[in-house]
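Dear Dr. H.,

I hope your travels went smoothly. While you were away I took the liberty of generating a structure for the chain from your last submission, since the lab meeting agenda had it listed for discussion. I wanted you to have the full record in hand beforehand rather than looking at slides cold. The sequence, exactly as received, is reproduced here:
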Amino acid sequence: MRVQTVTSIDFNSDDDLLFLGFHGFGNNETEMIRVIDALYDGSGHKPNYMSFRGTYSRPFVGNYYWYPDVCSTEERRRECHRVDTAVIGLLRSPAYARFRKVLIGFSQGGYLSYRMVLEHPDLFDAAILMSPSFKGEKGSAPVTGRTRFALCYGCEDHTIPVADQRTARIKLEQTGNLTYFEYPGMGHGICDAEIADLRRWLGL
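The corresponding predicted structure, in token form, is as follows:
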């Protein structure tokens, strides 16, 4: 399959983090670029990233998504696997071997990031899941491997059902590698406090 990405990497930089960004439903690759840039704001450094565009377009409305809003768990997993295969194909290049790879995704992109860790438990140094969808994952395989997780939700997020949020937290807590963040007053979005917390979590 064809994947589209905006890439900004300084191969001579001392910074060995490489962010792999996946946006939410109805957005595009610029969403995660803005988030990644915000994480580095004030650091004096520029981040290394590959920010991907969703594989499905919204005719006449604009922007993209990774899987249909109404689809089965099997369909979601299949679409995530297709993206995963294409992205991993890119990462096989020796040019990326020295980087610690950090998945970062919002909503659908957060779910996609989680599925990528399931398929490659020892490839990614960290995964930042911002308000991820987790529908249908209660009975899924346990998460294994060395990946560190940051899981973020707004207390007023009514887009992701509370039961699915709970599933995400329970499953990731079982890894022993989860840091959980919750934000009063925030809905299905991203806030300044979240960026600040993630910046500290990453050690930037």
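Two observations you may find useful: The helical segments are 29-40, 73-91, 108-119, 162-173, 192-202. Strands lie at 4-8, 17-22, 49-53, 56-57, 64-65, 100-106, 126-130, 148-154, 178-183.

With kind regards,
E. W.
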